[in-house]
């Protein structure tokens, strides 16, 4: 019975996209299933089925199979295999192998650039520590732990490092001295300076070696036509949630049917179906559930315990990263009238996130490597080497905005936490590491430049002439996946598509659409600041009509 | 299994040119010859290639030609047959020659990629092609030939996966551990006391089950990040 499910599910979800040896794949899937708790559960329920008195011995096998099938094991296994395959890197094609380092990032010069960038971040963190004479991490005294536990749901008031005690000592670190380690602008510089040493240069502007845009890496990105095919479900002829379900359109036309179908999809609890349904957007009332299904977040008691454990870790140790996160929330979400109400919620997600070692797993696919350190007094002793922060991710200016829009979806902080963690480990990490991956920020930036050049050559040329490279404005949008730049409901509609199509390529498409939409005004600007002003306020924009315009209007 | 690469001489790549004025043909040739001395590892002087491993550096297509030793029984391909056989024709290493994808990947080409059997080989010629003028250089790094394909050994699948359903019927094996064991127990209850052989057989199965369970330990970590409860850190290490 397992076998039938396995083979079918693999064929289902792969559809020939990966030419990896099927045997090898099967072995991996089996290995994964066997080591998961699911396998144990399956055995237990099989045993229960077999012990039913209604079962005749001659039909034991069939009976057990039917019993398991009707208990929903079919769906559970399919989902498990689907999510396992989703988490596998897609590069394992014909005859390609390599060291783990190479699998993270095959191109040497990109790897070097990422390493240099990491070193810069480390130095900046270290110098912050030295200047402020604070350690990266220290154990909180018992009393402080208790105090923080009491303030857990209202950390926004005084911050994580604050200590208000009967003794009257205030140990709060002066937050004005804590500054974000890096901002999108700094990272853009790194991305722009990326250059292939094996690239010929003959000095022709506009050719491969001296591009019109800022990105100088000759990577292959999709053309508009390829994107049209990829996003064909978003065509203007097809009704979309986010356009056709607005309140001024009669519900009979689209909304009623859509909701009905949505309920059916939800009850089937099958990730690929939810994903397919979401291609036309998630109805507001169903989004939370659909996203959880697509990402495979199904909370059980262990997950709740796990979150509690992370919380305990937060109380135990005081990290400098906490202050960075705290500062970031204060600078971004708290200043945003859409998100300030979620301030405390954000801490309850971000602080445990920094302690979560499961996040380290994504580094097998990420070109970045987690920072390393040694326990105080044991410098250089390998047994005392630790990653810092425990999840290996150093937040940048705007990191909290990856979480903020999702606060609208989940009122349970644990659910929010696990959905965010999945989103980060599957998508968001690619937006702030240098890599040649087709979903990486470098490729996305290049895709933006190519599309804008192809679709709005006049506009691109004009902006370039007045010294305002479009990417300089669009990069922060891409890096934050538009969170904080658009109205929150629009961000969620956009992320629906990211999840449904399992691709971040929609981000540059939207960026191009926005430039295109504001073209008339942009054509009149003569300075960078003026151009920035034209594109400063995007809160009135409707994402879907814009995307449709950019993808399908020509 | 022979894990050592075949001893061979890899000559430096020769760029194919039409004239001497730095014309970029985008084609290079690498000749590989095998020492004529009897290779101690190869008993029958039969040079056989089962696997080619290398790290690509901006080569877009790879063609592998092999010259085989012509003997009486070798089927000839025409009267002028010199013994050259094409094992691989324009195998794409980079999906798009102008783009970076695949440019620095490591490849492992095995028998299933080759169109003919590579045995009794005198020499091998690799033809590297890079039609795109974008790149300054293209070459192959860490080129190694192996006698047998033992690059990535895949553990064999459990029989219950590969076996067809039909062949399984009637077999009282441990296809699905649970149902199998239960079935056996039930059938024994019918006949009374089992004989020692079948008892020991099922005990062995039990042992196998236990072994299997212990080998299928979960890789789930405990999530500890501190060392002996301590996580006091001053500065980050530059490694």
UniProtKB/TrEMBL annotation, chain A:
It holds the Pfam family RabGAP-TBC. It comes from the Eukaryota. This is TBC1 domain family member 19 isoform X1. It comes from Aplysia californica (California sea hare). Residues 281-502 form the Rab-GAP TBC domain.
From TrEMBL, chain B:
This is Nicolin-1 isoform X1. It comes from Aplysia californica.
């Amino acid at each position: 019975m397992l076998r039938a499910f396995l083979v079918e599910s693999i064929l289902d979800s792969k559809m020939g996209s990966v030419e990896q040896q099927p045997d090898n794949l099967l072995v991996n899937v089996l290995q994964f299933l066997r080591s998961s708790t699911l396998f144990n559960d399956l055995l237990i329920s099989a045993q229960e089925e077999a012990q039913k008195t209604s079962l005749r011995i001659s039909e034991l096998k069939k009976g057990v199979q039917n019993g398991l099938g009707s208990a929903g094991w079919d769906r559970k296994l399919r989902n498990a295999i689907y999510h396992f395959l989703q988490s596998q890197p897609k590069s394992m094609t014909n005859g390609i192998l390599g060291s783990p380092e190479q699998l993270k990032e095959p191109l040497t010069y990109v790897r070097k650039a990422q390493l240099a960038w990491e070193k810069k971040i480390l130095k900046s963190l270290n110098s912050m520590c030295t200047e402020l004479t604070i350690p990266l991490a220290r154990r909180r005294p018992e009393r402080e732990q208790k105090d923080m536990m009491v303030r857990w749901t209202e950390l926004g008031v005084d911050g994580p490092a604050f200590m208000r005690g009967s003794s009257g000592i205030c140990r709060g670190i002066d937050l004005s001295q804590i500054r974000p380690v890096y901002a999108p602008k700094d990272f853009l510089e790194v991305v722009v300076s990326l250059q292939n040493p094996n690239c010929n240069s003959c000095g022709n502007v506009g050719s491969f070696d001296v591009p019109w845009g800022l990105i100088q890496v000759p990577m292959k990105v999709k053309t508009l036509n390829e994107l049209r095919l990829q996003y064909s479900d978003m065509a203007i002829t097809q009704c979309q949630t986010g356009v056709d379900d607005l309140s001024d359109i009669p519900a009979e036309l689209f909304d009623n049917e859509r909701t009905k179908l949505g309920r059916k999809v939800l009850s089937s609890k099958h990730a690929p179906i939810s994903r397919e349904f979401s291609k036309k957007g998630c109805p507001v009332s169903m989004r939370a559930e659909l996203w959880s299904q697509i990402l495979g977040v199904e909370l059980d008691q262990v997950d709740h315990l796990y979150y509690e454990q992370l919380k305990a870790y937060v109380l135990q140790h005081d990290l400098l990263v906490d202050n960075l996160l705290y500062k970031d929330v204060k600078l971004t979400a708290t200043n945003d009238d859409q998100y300030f109400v979620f301030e405390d919620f954000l801490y309850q997600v971000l602080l445990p996130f920094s302690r979560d070692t499961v996040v380290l797993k994504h580094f097998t696919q990420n070109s970045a490597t987690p920072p390393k350190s040694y326990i105080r007094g044991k410098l250089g002793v390998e047994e005392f080497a630790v990653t810092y922060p425990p999840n290996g991710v150093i937040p940048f200016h705007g990191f909290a905005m990856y979480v903020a829009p999702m606060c609208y979806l989940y009122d349970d902080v644990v659910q929010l936490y696990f959905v965010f963690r999945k989103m980060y480990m599957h998508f968001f990490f690619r937006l702030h590491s240098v890599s040649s991956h087709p979903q990486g920020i470098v490729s996305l930036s290049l895709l933006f430049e190519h599309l804008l050049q192809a679709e709005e050559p006049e506009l691109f040329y004009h902006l370039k002439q007045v010294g305002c490279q479009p990417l300089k404005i669009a990069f922060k949008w891409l890096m934050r996946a538009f969170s904080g730049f658009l109205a929150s409901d629009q961000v969620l509609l956009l992320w629906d598509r990211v999840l449904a199509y399992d691709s971040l390529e929609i981000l540059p498409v939207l960026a191009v659409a926005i430039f295109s939409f504001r073209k008339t005004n942009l054509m009149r600007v003569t300075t960078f600041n003026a151009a920035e002003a034209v594109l400063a306020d995007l809160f009135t924009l409707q994402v879907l009509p814009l995307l449709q315009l950019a993808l399908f209007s020509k | 299994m022979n894990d050592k690469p075949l001893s061979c001489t890899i000559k430096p790549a020769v760029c194919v040119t039409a004239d001497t004025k730095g014309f970029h043909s985008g084609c290079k040739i690498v000749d590989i010859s095998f020492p004529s001395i009897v290779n101690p590892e190869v008993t029958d002087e039969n040079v056989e290639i089962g696997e080619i491993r290398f790290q690509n550096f901006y080569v877009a297509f790879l063609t592998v030609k092999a010259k085989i030793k012509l003997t009486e029984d070798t089927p000839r391909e025409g009267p002028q047959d010199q013994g050259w056989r094409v094992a691989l024709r324009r195998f794409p290493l980079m999906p798009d020659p102008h783009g970076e994808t695949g440019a620095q990947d490591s490849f492992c080409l095995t028998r299933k990629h080759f169109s003919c059997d590579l045995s009794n080989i005198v020499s091998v010629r690799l033809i590297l092609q890079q039609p795109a003028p974008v790149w300054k250089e293209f070459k192959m790094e860490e080129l190694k030939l192996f006698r047998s394909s033992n690059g990535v050994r895949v553990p064999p699948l459990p029989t219950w996966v590969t076996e067809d359903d039909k062949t399984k019927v009637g077999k009282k094996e441990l296809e699905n551990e649970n149902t199998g064991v239960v079935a056996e127990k039930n059938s024994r209850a019918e006949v009374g006391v089992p004989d020692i052989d079948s008892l020991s057989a099922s005990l062995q199965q039990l042992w196998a089950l236990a072994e299997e369970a212990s080998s299928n330990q979960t890789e789930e970590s405990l999530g500890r990040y501190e060392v002996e409860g301590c996580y006091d850190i001053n500065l980050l290490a530059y490694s």
